[in-house]
Amino acid sequence: MAVVSFYLVVGFPKPAYAMHIMEGFLPIEWAIFWWVVALPFFVLGLLRLNRITKANPELKLLLGLAGAFAFVLSALKIPSVTGSCSHPTGTGLGAVLFGPLTMTVLGSLVLLFQALLLAHGGLTTLGANAFSMAIAGPFAAYWIYNLIMGASGKQKTAIFLAAALANLLTYVITSIQLALAFPAPVGGFIASFTKFAAIFAVTQIPLAISEGLLTVLVWNWLQSYNPQELELLQLIKGRNHSNESI
Fold first, then answer.
1. In which pathway does it act (predicted)?
2. Which of 83, 86, 224, 231 has CB 3.0 to 4.6 Å from 25, enough for a Cys bridge?
3. In the prediction, which pLDDT does 7 show?
4. pLDDT higher for 237 or 105?
């Protein structure tokens, strides 16, 4: 993983395309709006993360793995819409393991580090990027996983669909953000959203399928080598299911 990260830093130094929405691309009013929307989720996520690490410090390595998984996958970018790009997100795994609020913090930190270290994304657009990848995606993954598990009990199917559909929803949200900021002269928001979503779909659909399959492989690895941590997480989820989303 260290070798891959080093290659990403050295091999992709050009900032022509930024992760999700690049620095300075959004009008200032929209950049501020998405920061305001994203911050409450981040604060709640910090509180949740603090409770998890204090009560179960042995889960810190698994938290680190979920963050690293998101960092490496989301750094594998393919240029797409001007000012943006397509890539896996890697947030589905952490959302299934720890819940959407915890993944909101991990995903936001991933976006911050990539903006500072890899010139992917930016600080002004961090709120918008965090909302699409670190908030909307993880919440979708968590709900989809629990819906499928409750309906069928097929865990591998649930994990695949949670990761893949969370990836796709991230880009639906990104398309909405771009369409709101740059409505088409003819057709307005709808025409702009349709254009952005159609361009993203060319690369994002196969990427979403690939991410779903990779997430299942990582889950199988965790079941083989970290069964105690997974059992502990299930116990935590059971204790908190009645009053909050883990």
1. Cofactor biosynthesis; adenosylcobalamin biosynthesis
2. 83
3. 37
4. 105
